[in-house]
Amino acid sequence: MKFIPHPEDLPQEAQSIQFHFEDIIIPGFIEEAEKSWIIKCVKSEDVQHGTLQFIFCRDEYLYEMNVKYLGHHDYTDVITFDYSANKKVISGDIFISYERVVDNAHAMGEDVMVELRRVLIHGVLHLIGYTDQSPEDQAEMRRKENYCLSLRQQI
Which end of the chain is more exposed for a tag (fewer CB within 10 A), N or C? Predict the structure, then answer.
């Protein structure tokens, strides 16, 4: 059985990690456990977090944001908006299409919660400064995602 901390037992810093659900319900998503894991991942990169907001939404919601703010006319699973003043304290909004995550998980034969966590931490890694523009960058991003997913198993 995994330990799930009570919200009052979370470090004060966890209060600046928030989850918002736009017409989405995610079965099995336990906010306190996910906050603890995110904090552990961020600390493993020797940075701190400021305000991190995760907004879970539908495909169309994220598609419209992708068009409006990035000029991309395609569907995606995650968009990250970086509000960090410096790279030692990260802050930002991470929008995740839960529908896209579910579809991708099924297409890859992956557990939906594992894929959701991969996408969630992918957004955090972007805030830390990792990119995925080149094949080398993509490989490094995948290594970091896998490492963070291994940290989740310890919670």
Answer: N
Q: Which residues of 20-38 are buried (b: 16+ CB within 10 A; e: fewer)?
A: eeeebebeebebbebbbbb
CB-side neighbour CA atoms (13 Å) of 13: 15
Fold category of 14-152 in CATH:
Collagenase (Catalytic Domain) (3.40.390)
Q: pTM above the 0.90 mark? A: no
- Location of structure tokens 């990792």: 130
Structure tokens at 134: 């080149």
Summarised one tens digit per residue, pLDDT across range 57-79 is 999 999 999 999 999 999 999 99
Give the tokens for residue 95.
């929008």
Q: What dihedral do alpha carbons 120, 126, 129, 131 form, nearest 10°?
A: 120
pLDDT tens for 63-119 read 999 999 999 999 999 999 999 988 899 999 999 999 999 999 999 999 999 999 999
